[in-house]
From TrEMBL:
Chain coiled-coil ranges: none
InterPro entries noted in UniProt: ATPase_P-typ_cyto_dom_N, ATPase_P-typ_P_site, ATPase_P-typ_TM_dom_sf, ATPase_P-typ_transduc_dom_A_sf, ATPase_P-type_domA, HAD-like_sf, HAD_sf, P_typ_ATPase
Start-end of Gly residues biased regions: 9-19
Name of the protein in question: HAD-IC family P-type ATPase
Alphabetically ordered keywords of this record: Membrane, Translocase, Transmembrane, Transmembrane helix
Compartments, record wording: Cell membrane
Start and end residues of each stretch annotated as Disordered: 1-26
Membrane topology, as annotated: Multi-pass membrane protein
Amino acid sequence: MTQRAKIGTDGGGDPGGPVGTEPPVVHRPAGLTAAEVAERVARGEVNDVPVRSSRSTTDIVRANVFTRFNAIIGVLWVIMLIVAPIQDSLFGFVIVANTGIGIIQELRAKKTLDGLAVIGEAKPTVRRDGRAAGISTSEIVLGDLIELGPGDKVVVDGVVAEADSMEIDESLLTGEADPVVKRPGDPVMSGSFVVAGGGAFTATKVGREAYAAQLAEEASRFTLVHSELRSGISTILKYVTWMMVPTAIGLIISQLVVKDNDLKNSIARTVGGIVPMIPEGLVLLTSVAFAIGVIRLGRKQCLVQELPAIEGLARVDVVCLDKTGTLTEGGMDVTGVRLLNGADEGYVAKVLGALGESDPRPNASLQAVIDAYPDAEDWRCTESLPFSSARKYSGASFSEGDGEDSTWLLGAPDVLLPSGDPSLAEIDHLNEQGLRVLLLARTVHELDSPHVAQDARATALVVLEQRLRPDAADTLAYFADQNVAAKVISGDNAVSVGAVAGKLGLPGAANTVDARTLPADREEMAKVLDENAVFGRVTPQQKRDMVAALQSAGHTVAMTGDGVNDVLALKDADIGVSMGSGSEATRAVAQIVLLNNSFATLPSVVAEGRRVIGNITRVATLFLTKTVYSVLLAILVVVSQIEYPFLPRHLTLLSTLTIGVPAFFLALAPNKERAKPHFVRRVMRYAIPGGVVAAAATFTTYLLARHHYTGADALGAETSAATLTLFLVSMWVLAIIARPYTLWRLALVAAMGGAFLLVLVVPWLQDFFALKLVGTTMPWAAVAVAAAGAAVLEVAWRWVDRRFPA
């Protein structure tokens, strides 16, 4: 079959012509010439929307430098550089270093993302000068002829020029689930995608005029917004600002007006009270944790198109897997043909070869048939019906070499055969072995008839063997170990899907469900989904309904897929994961693209998300405990009308040893715990009691020291005693946060304690940080107060766990 002419397309065709004559050549528009393309480029008629995978360098620097808290700290830093020794200005240098780290890490993440985006970029096929070639979306010009096949996304608006049974899904634009058949002259909207057939269209709107260009730009932009973690931190910072402003004003008035102290010393102690109220490292550490997550995943060829997807996948408790392309590799092999109803083997081979040639864009099943059966050159295709996931079959009409006409269907046996057909028993036996079976049937109806499958005569069974992914079993075992329920959702025969899942060790694989028996009611469907793990004969719309049913039952759902039948479900799932080899439409709606097509990368993404969320929750408690005790100490000082006990250098030392350094290591440590909701509540339920206990213990020691010490150097001794108590209580907070202990966590806590001890015993460090314990009575009293505070802290946090469970 060297030439094919399709009835109803431009160029026509004459199926009734004499046998052996060459059919007329189908006219194919050549597209724009090179000169016409250059002319349009010169006029600016180019699809030049800058689709970015990451923020620009300017945006990254601006976001890290120009923050509210950096502005406050910057002003305080300048004041301290003027009025106090350099050691009281150390907090400013710490902020500069932190900001630099944040910028460097985000720039590294940007480089990773941009590199991956180029690898994963869709290249639409454009016909120019009669030749088709893939080009970048940004190179399309007005009037270009763009070819389409199953799974291709319509990247700009246009008008259909050629159509070969082309069906386009516009549900992402209109919400209408049924695909629309497109014919020459029909408009196509950017953002829609091809589900069956193919063709070509002429671009009529490019650049920012095309609807999907704006959509794609927004969807693929690197962003840190729209996540519970980021919005939770923003909420916390808003409340911190409200608390900080009046407290800082009261502290300034108290230290500068009420107390008749040396002006420079009063200013230094006032700044010392304000600076620790600001959780300046919390936003930085969150950005760094996310950025490092992107870099780590990038090394595994995982493109994170929306940054909060890392966080979202950490919260997932159900992952829906498409069998083909996810659990199995894309390719298949024909292992045999079972003849039915006395069919002739040679004739069946001719039919299969002709069917393979009839579809210019074969799916994996038909490609296996093409590889096994050569084209019957004396057969001519007069009409074709491309495969559709909704139909579960494809078809074609032929003019055979001997003048006979015939129409054939190739697809799901249980869809094409009536229930009770004797062939179904043999098919079930094959499916139980995990084999895929297609039915070849001859029909007496026209292909465009709604009853084309009725009364079809079964001719042969085509048996296909699917190649299991070698890493799929380990990945499913990982999800089971992490209490993430895996649901295999496929359009294939339920028994066959169950057999494949069983080979991979999926729990519940023996009890498969045919999706045609699923209840329509969402609540009832959710119950069936919760109780079972394998579902076959699922239509694209059902996949979407199943995701919605699981979500209605309170589950956080991830959906993986690579074909056009997965697009709607991927879009509606909490997290959509696409294979890099998947269709253009699938990659466009997914938040995460596995460019290496390896399902085994998914556990890394889950683990990365859990690491980020779990660890940020830990370290946020450290930062906000400091904010709470700083605000309370300032209030107690204002009410008591006494000097603020600390200089900036003291709290810089404490913050570095009990928060800054430990938080950095804790934020990047492994963490397998599934992320839980209510971030703000989970953090504040620990930070508030921790801060209250720390402030109360520190202020108690300070008051005792004020009664114990007298003389000109009394304030220094009082400060040293109060600093010791605050450090010990803060260390206990760190010790609780670091649980459960591992060797490196114990070493981290011990190292921080050792560093503080070093400051207390080395003379020049004592002078540098103005920390010198005087006598033995008060230092031991400070230790005793801290021990009491630690005991109260243990009781308080355990009570909180029982009273306010997360």
